[in-house]
């Protein structure tokens, strides 16, 4: 049993553990960095951090085709069941921040994020979230979602993180400087930068950022190309 993470470009991620597939923020159609297309995406569980189009993405069509369960904050979970989406209630989880649920042995907790969450049709999407996921092999992964730096990342770090997935793009989220400070608060074993180089306003040099992380922290940075992945080694 092992847990593997693949970056599909922008904030889209695929985590595989114990035969289960978790797809996060599946913005593939219209994503210039996407490494797969929506009609080939596979998922048992789809997680959506917040309502923006570059995160909700193809979640509805992928859920309908694969039968995946979709989880997001309560407001987004209601929208997913509304007119034009109509996901069945039994296939939707709608917890709120601080709350968690278990899906096939994978524990998922919603964390705070400082950002917006309006849905693509202008509907209210509640408050944006991050996720702390604990996989059956004990590997714990934090996806911060789109967020600014915040001091309570230290509390999230206290849970003991194997991997933190952080935006470094700047403009819409924290940039490289604050993402290094986030690593210092979270103290994960590994860190994976995302939400950069998709569009011109979020162009960043991830290799240079990784050098800073190596120099200033005890965390090992993993820089991937869209489509690439790595297996998270047990401690
Ligand atoms: Ni956003
Ligand atoms: Mn975004």
Secondary-structure map with pairings?
Elements: E1 3-9, E2 12-17, E3 20-24, E4 45-47, H1 53-56, H2 59-66, E5 69-71, H3 74-80, E6 92-93, E7 100-103, E8 106-112, E9 129-134, E10 140-143, H4 153-157, E11 163-167, H5 176-186, E12 190-194, H6 206-216, E13 220-221, E14 229-232
Parallel strand pairs: 3-4, 4-5, 5-6, 10-11, 11-12, 12-13
Antiparallel strand pairs: 1-2, 1-14, 2-3, 7-8, 8-9, 9-10
Structure commentary:
The structure is a single chain. By secondary structure, this protein is of the alpha/beta class. It has one domain (3-225): Metallo-beta-lactamase, Chain A (4-Layer Sandwich), CATH 3.60.15.10. 20% of the residues lie in helices and 27% in strands. The chain has helices at residues 53-56, 59-66, 74-80, 153-157, 176-186, 206-216; strands at residues 3-9, 12-17, 20-24, 45-47, 69-71, 92-93, 100-103, 106-112, 129-134, 140-143, 163-167, 190-194, 220-221, 229-232. The chain has a seven-stranded mixed sheet, covered by helices on one side. A seven-stranded mixed sheet has the order 7-8-9-10-11-12-13. The longest helix has 11 residues, at 176-186. The mean pLDDT is 98. The site of manganese (II) ion has 7 residues, from helix 1. Manganese (II) ion is lined by residues 11, 52, 54-55, 146, 172, 195.
């Amino acid at each position: 049993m092992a847990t593997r993470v693949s970056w599909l470009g922008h904030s889209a991620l695929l985590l595989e553990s114990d035969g289960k597939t978790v797809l996060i923020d599946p913005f593939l159609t219209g994503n210039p960095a996407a490494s797969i297309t929506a009609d080939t995406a596979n998922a048992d569980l789809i997680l959506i951090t917040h309502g923006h189009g570059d995160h909700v993405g193809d979640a509805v069509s992928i859920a309908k085709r694969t039968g995946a369960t979709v989880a997001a904050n309560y407001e987004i979970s209601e929208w997913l069941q509304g007119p034009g989406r109509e996901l069945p209630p039994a296939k939707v989880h709608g917890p709120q921040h601080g709350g968690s649920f278990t899906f096939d042995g994978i524990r998922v907790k919603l964390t705070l994020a400082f950002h917006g969450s309006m849905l693509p049709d202008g509907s209210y999407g509640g408050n944006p979230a991050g996720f702390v996921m604990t996989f059956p092999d004990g590997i714990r992964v934090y996806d911060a979602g789109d967020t600014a730096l915040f001091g309570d990342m230290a509390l999230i770090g206290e849970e003991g993180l194997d991997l933190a997935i952080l935006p470094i793009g700047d403009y819409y989220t924290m940039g490289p400087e604050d993402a290094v400070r986030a690593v210092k608060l979270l103290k994960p074993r590994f860190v994976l930068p995302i939400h950069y180089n998709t569009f011109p306003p979020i162009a960043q040099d991830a290799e240079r950022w990784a050098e800073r992380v190596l120099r200033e922290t005890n965390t090992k940075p993993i820089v991937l190309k869209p489509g690439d992945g790595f297996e998270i080694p047990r401690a």
